[in-house]
Each structure stands twice: as structure tokens, then as C-alpha cells.
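quick one if you have a minute, typing this from the bus. theres a chain ive been looking at and ive put its sequence and its fold in C-alpha cell form underneath. please have a look and point out which stretches look like helix strand or loop to you. anything you notice is useful, everything is just below.

***
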Amino acid sequence: MVTTGGAAHSPDLAELLAGHRPQGPTETADHERVRHLTGAADAWDRGTPLHFTASALIVHPPTRRVLLRWHVRQQAWLQVGGHGDPGETLPLDIALREGLEETGLADLTPWPDAALVHLAVVPVPASPVEPAHEHADLRFLLATGTPERARPENPAAPLEWLTIAEARQRTTEENLRETLDRAGRLLDAPA
């Protein structure tokens, strides 16, 4: 969140993407590909072939650990996050809500600030209720001071606290490894 005149402000989609500087050719191409969606009424509509989602890698800076969640549909260890609920359009707010719902951590806060850490367009396989599609995933870092309070939202979605190296080995997704590398650089930065 950005502070404006003493009030907290969560950047909207256009503001967030305008302020983000992609790193590398893949993210640059993804950024260019999704910029036109910022003004679309259906930018968050899960019924479209390409739509936005918001997610977060939850970190515990004192121990330099990150929290991964098992995603049954994807059959992978990933960060928390997902679709906006009807009427939701602020990416950071969506990531915060998803983080709370999926981990039970009530103290999540943007870390080290509210900047977008990574934009990744990721394929989503077809399911019995949805055709194959893509997510333009907007990724943040959220910190907790109470890692011991993390609880999975259901038994099929366990959570694990891991070092960056362990998380890189656990996930099968290259785009998440990039997010982990970026988080690692920030966790290593002098305070």
C-alpha cells in the first residue's frame, strides 16, 4: 500500500503495472502482452482466456523462510493467491485476502513495500468446469511475524515453511523459482 496524505492507498491495476519494471525477456514480453487488459472490464473475469490473478510469497524475514502451499489442481507447491472475488479490482488487496484465507495469518503486511515483485503469465490446464486458460499473475511479498500460526485452509492444501533453496527444489515451476530468487535477493539485502 502506498501512503498518500496519511491514508493507505492500494494501487489499482493500471497504476501497479505502470510502476513495475520487468526483469528479463520473459517478464518483459508478459508485461507487454497484458498491458492492454488494464482498462478492460473483464480483466479479472475468470471466464476469459487470459485474466489477472494476484498472489503472494509469504516470508518470515527473521528466519529467511518462505511459505509454500500444495495446490491440488496444479499438483504443485506454489505461493498463495488466486482470483479476485466479484467487485475486487485491487491486486494487493486480493493477494492479502487470499493469503489470509489460505494460511490463517492475520498479520500479513506488504514487504519490504507494496511493490509488485513479479508478473508471470502462467498456463492453467483444463478442468471439468473450465477450459485451459492463462493467468496474468501479479506477485507480491507479504511478511508475517507469527509463522507458527500458519494453518492450511483445508487438509488437502498443506503449508510448509522452507528456506529459499528448499522452496526452489520443492516447486516444479520455473516462474516461481524466479519469484523465489527475487525474494531471496531482498531477504539478503542489508536492512
